[in-house]
Amino acid sequence: MTREIDEAAFQRALAELLRQFQRTVGDGASEVYSGAGIGALLEHTTRIHLLDSLAELLGWQLELDGDMAEEVSLKNGTTTFMDYLGVARDTHAPVLLIEAKARDKPFITPRASGAHYDYHAELVAEMINHWRREGDKTASPATGDWHDYMEQVGKYVKGLILPTNNGHAVKRPVEPQTLPG
Q1: Which pLDDT does position 28 carry in this prediction?
Q2: Does residue 162 sit in helix, strand or coil?
């Protein structure tokens, strides 16, 4: 297979996954039981209906002997649980951390009115830099709880949890969120 065929197959599979997710939890989704209503989508729902499949689509294995663990317990004074931790198959060193959020959480939005970013990744990068500089929440580049989300992930990665306990550090943290609407 060529890289172009692999990329096209991935794009088709991702598009189908997003269609299935929307059908399952979006407007017009079937109720679990008669009269239940759809209600707010919890983080667990996002994980089961989207992120588990996305991780597998990306080549991660979630089984017991897989390379992606869920609800990984970390201890550094208190016990904390990371949603997903991907490890290198040969060394078991952490290489990917995914912190899930409920689908109904607001999508990342710039705090400054009129601020424009070509990609959400630019705003996430600015958020990471703001956190690294120990910037104040009121001066955060993004609105709402995104400062807290970044702080949570930053503490997992940089805040002595991973490096202290096992000598490894995740180099490129990303906090994915489901697509809007």
Answers
A1: 74
A2: helix
* 3-class DSSP assignment, residue 110: strand
| DSSP codes of every residue in 43-104 | HHHHIIIIIHHHHHHTT---STTSSEEEEEEEEESEEEEEEEEEE-TTT--EEEEE----TT
Contact 143, 115 (CB under 8 A): no
CA proximity to 50, closest of 82, 85, 25: 25
Angle at CA of residue 159, ends 158 and 163, nearest 5°: 65
Q: Which two tokens stand for residue 139?
A: 């001066």
Q: Is the pTM of this model over 0.90?
A: no
- What is the mean pLDDT for each group of 10 consecutive residues in the chain (181 residues)? 80 91 77 66 82 92 90 71 86 82 81 81 89 89 87 69 53 47 40
